[in-house]
Every structure is written in C-alpha cells, then in structure tokens.
Amino acid sequence: MANQLSNSTSPYLRQHADNPVLWQEWSEAAFNEARERDVPIFLSIGYSACHWCHVMAHESFEDAEVAELLNSNYVAIKLDREERPDIDSVYMQATLALTGHGGWPMSVFLDHDAQPFYAGTYFPKTSRNGMPGFMEILSALTQAWEERRGDVTTVGGRVVDAMNERATFIRGDLPTSDVLANAVTRLQMNFDEVHAGFGGAPKFPPSMVLEFLLREAARTDNLAALFMAERTLTAMARGGMYDQLGGGFARYCVDESWTVPHFEKMLYDNALLLRVYVHWYRLTGSELAAKIVRESATFLLREMRTPEGGFASALDADTDGVEGKFYAWTPSEITEVLGNADGSWAVNLLGVTPEGTFEHGLSVLQLPDDPDDFDRWAKVREQLFVHRAQRTAPGRDDKVVASWNGLVIAALAEAGALLSEPEWVEAALVAGDLLVAIHLGPTGDDRLCRTSRDGVPGKNVGVLDDYGSVAEGFLALYQVTGDDSWLALSGVLLDVAISHFSDEQGGFFDTPDDAPPLVQRPQDPSDNAEPSGWFAIAHACVTYSALTGIQEYRQIAERALGVVADLGVRAPRASGWGLAAVSALIDGPLEIAIVGRFDDSATALLRSIALGTTAPGAVFAVGEPGSEVPLLRDRPLVDGGAAAYVCRGFTCQAPTTDPFVLASQVGARVGE
C-alpha cells in the first residue's frame, strides 16, 4: 500500500500526501482492508486552516517512528471535515460522548463496523503536561484490540447507543412572539456587559444570533435586542478579530475582550458577518457598519475568489509554521514603515504595546476609537497593508464549498444592491453560475455535490446545509436581479431537500436517504459556526413561499421550526437562524412588488426604497407590467407610472407611486 492522498480534491488531504503514514480516504475499500488485516481503523479529522492539526501533523504524522506504529497496526484514514461534515458530525458526537469535549484535530479509533471505541483531539507524540502521548495510545489500543477484542467492540456499541439516545428533539408548534421575547431575555442573562458578546473565552462571532436580535429590534423595537447586537458588532469590528488593515474576520478570539484572534479566516464567518453588518447598516445607518461592509466585501473579492469565480474556503492561521506571524506587529516595525511621527501616532491608535497584546512582544492591531484624522489613517493603513503584503502570506484552502458559497452569494448580492456596488452583485452572479455549472450540472439529477476545486467537482454529495444555503443565495440573486431562473433553481433545490432529507416528522436529516449509511444518520437542528441545515432549509422555505405564494413551503417551514419553541429558549445561542426565521414568519414576512419599466428612474427609486426595508425576512420582486412572476402577476402600472404593492400575509396596502409613502409602508430610512 501507499499513501493515497495525492489525487484528492481536498487541499487539506493533499497536505498529508507526503506523510510516511499510509493514509487512505474514507471508503469501503479502507474498511475492507482493515477486516482483511484484522486491524482497527485510525480516523484523523481536520481541516486546512486548523493550527493544531498542523502541529499534530508535524509532530506525529511526519514522523517515521509514529508512521511505523500506525502502518503496522492500523488502517489510517484522513478526512477533511469540510468535505464530509456528515462524518465529522457523527464522530464529534462520539468524541463528546467519550471525553466530554471535542475539537480538531479529531482522533477517533474505530472497529470494523465503524463504531468508535476511543477518541480524543490533539495528542503530542509522547506524553507531556498531563496529556497522553500518541505513541503510547497507539500501543495500548493495539494491545487491547489483540487481547480484549470483546471489550473493544462492546465499548463501540455502547457509544453508538448513547449517541442515538441523545439524538432526540422536543418538537412543538410554531413559536409565538412570547417565545422570541423570552429568547432575548435569556440572551441578556448570558451577555457580557463589559466586553459584549455572549459568555466568556473563547468568543466566537454569534452571527446568526445577531441576525435574530436585529430582526427583533426592527419588528418590536426591542431596545435590549438592539443594544446587545450593536455592542457586539462594534466590539468585533474594533477588536483584534477584525483585520484592521485588510478587512475580514478571523474565526474567533481566544480571550473575552476580542483582543487576540485565532487567526484563520473562514469563508462562512465572513459571509455571515458581511450580511449581518449590511443589516445593521440598513436598520440604523451606522457609519461603522458601512465601513465594515465595504472593507469585508473588498477582502472577499481580493483574497477569497478563485479563478473560476467561486470563493475559497479559508486562509490559514499560520505562516511558516508560526500562528499569526502575518498579522502581528511590534512598535518598532510600525515606526520603521511609517517614520517616527506617523509611527508613534499609529502605535497609539492601534493599541500596539512594547509588551505586546499577543505573544513574543507582538501585538494584534485594534481600532478601539475612531482616528482623529481619517485622511491620515487612510494613508497609514495603506502603507502598513502594502508592507504586510511583502510578508509570506497564509496558505489558502481553495476548494469551493457549496453551502458557504451560497452564504457569500446572499451577502454580496444584498450588500451590492443596498450600497450600490454592482461589482459585488456581479461577483455573486458569477459564483451562482459556477454552482449551477460545476456543483449542480454534472450530477444530472438536480443533486448538488458538496465541493469543487479548479473547476472540477468533488465526489462527495451535498448535505442538507448545501441545499438550504445555496437556495438562500439563489433567492437573494432573484430578488436583486429579477432573473426568475434563480427562483426556479431555488425551488428545485428545496424540493430535493424535502424529498430526500425529511424525517417525516417535520424535521430533516443532514444526509439524503440514499447516502451510504454511517453508524448514525446525523441530524441536529442546532446552529454551530454556520446555520444548521435544518434551519437553513426552513429559512429558505419561508422566503420561497413568500415570493411564490405557494403555502406548502410555508407549512414545511412552520413544522420544521417547531423545535424552536424549546430550543430557542433553552439554548438561543444555538438556534439564532431558527429564531430569525420565526421572526420573519410572525412578521409576515412583508412582500413588496415593484412594477415598472427597468429603464425608468421612478422604478429605480422605488426599488432602492424597497431594498432598505427593515422588516424581518422581507421579500421583493421588480418587473415589467404583465410579468408572470407570482409576486408581480396582475399588478399594473398606476397612472402609467411605476408603482409599489406592499402586502403582509393576506392583506395588501393600496399601491403607491410615492417613495415616501413606500418608505413608511416598509420601514425604510430615507433622506440620510
């Protein structure tokens, strides 16, 4: 046998192609080999931007002594969690059941039936600081496999049983406004009054929760919701998690004060946060929000676009094996670039200290206060950015993940339309075309593939969140461009999800009914760092129903969101996207139809007002008279001119040609 990762479409797996470990990809062939050799399986799960994955690879997987132990006594499988989130989800549950905590790298030992009997995360090569050494673990588990096989398989069976017992959810009716108010109250109890955000260190960006809070602030004038959202959005934007020079957000902060990030930049975080900052700007007109939107969109187009027009998955935390090396500074480095006067000013402005705010005397750049001279800041920022570009850049995982591209399509389309940046909308359209051509087209049966690289589709089938988030992106494209092919495609994706992922009780599994079986068919409505597939489908169904008038999709969403009645109050931080969808349903959602000629300035003005609506989950369509699009059908011009029709539920207001009347009807800011 040989290491089999060199032809993988995953950059993470290809990073391990030269390891002396004889890695295989997840396959039936690998399990058959384990049966034939009568050895257990070692499953290593990680992703390309994971710092401790790199550390364990260097310490153990590149080491000949470790490789000899692994190759002789195990079949070694390397898995990219971003390509196979279904497998990652199953064995994360197992790791949590066995150890009480999880993370990556994930190290799981399996029997021939893929049942986990031992698990952990990072292991050093040899024992240190109270952590068991990887070589000692390999030797001990080999001995257990050979001498106490019955005990090993019994443990595996018990773990799977425990996982299945935990996979239950309390389902109820669609939550009421009281449930949403209680969720806000519960979030207040967990809100960090000093530093903003929720809970203590580490602090992850609560993107979906912030979306919910902004919606509730708009829907009910809940000042507590707006306070928590604005404080957190401000703290993240001014702290070290945000790249003050290049734009874009790191994955999380290791401290409670948003000072020191874990420097990897994930596409899903930046897509979700871009959209939240767009909605903050739309609701309040915040100049800080507009700044972050422009800088983050620029970052996405500059650093994350692939040659094919999609968006890459991540940027590494490490450079030359050192975490944060690309991003951190000393006072002397800044002064050397800028000179004494500007250098001293910038060091003070950006919170760079002689002791360092990070490690080894290095500081992470922050912008706690607005500069007293914006022109000077713009010049300084550009000089530092240009100088930083001469450093070795972090590696990029350039695979295209369907669901994450759906999220970025929605964000760029909305941001470009609202802030009049057609380049952003065009980038969203190109990414949408790529998903259709590469991820949807080759399957020939309306199925998505999960990933692609260099324009070549991967072999892993799409999971639930791919269908939900791509449908969400396509629905945004339809509303921004008026091209109803995007509306039709979103309906196709939702129909596949409903047909092949439904659990027949109103919920959804993460994998389709015809996927190769795992020890557990994963299912979880809870959000993680990105929306759960369950809530993503419900969210898209709400929008699709409002645009098409087909009530069956609304009913599907209402049934799916029944879990929010319990989960939304008990664990609102894990159900932000579901709470946001419920907020839209309770509000209507608002439906806005603009009928007019595309080259008419009056049509354009009404469209711009509609884009500024703050109503949760509001939908809109723009089209010529006589359109067959459901939201526009049988709605004529008024006195020969462009008109807006605003409805909520089954009640419509009188059509209007007056932009100020429309702004009042839809809750949009005007004249600012």
Automatic annotation (TrEMBL):
Species in which this protein is naturally found: freshwater metagenome
Entries under Gene3D superfamilies matching the protein: Glutaredoxin (3.40.30.10)
Pfam assignment, any one: Thioredox_DsbH
Residues annotated as transmembrane: none
Residue ranges of domain Spermatogenesis-associated protein 20-like TRX in the record: 3-163
Protein name: Unannotated protein
GO BP terms in the entry: carbohydrate metabolic process
InterPro entries: 6-hairpin_glycosidase_sf, Ssp411, Ssp411-like_TRX, Thioredoxin-like_sf
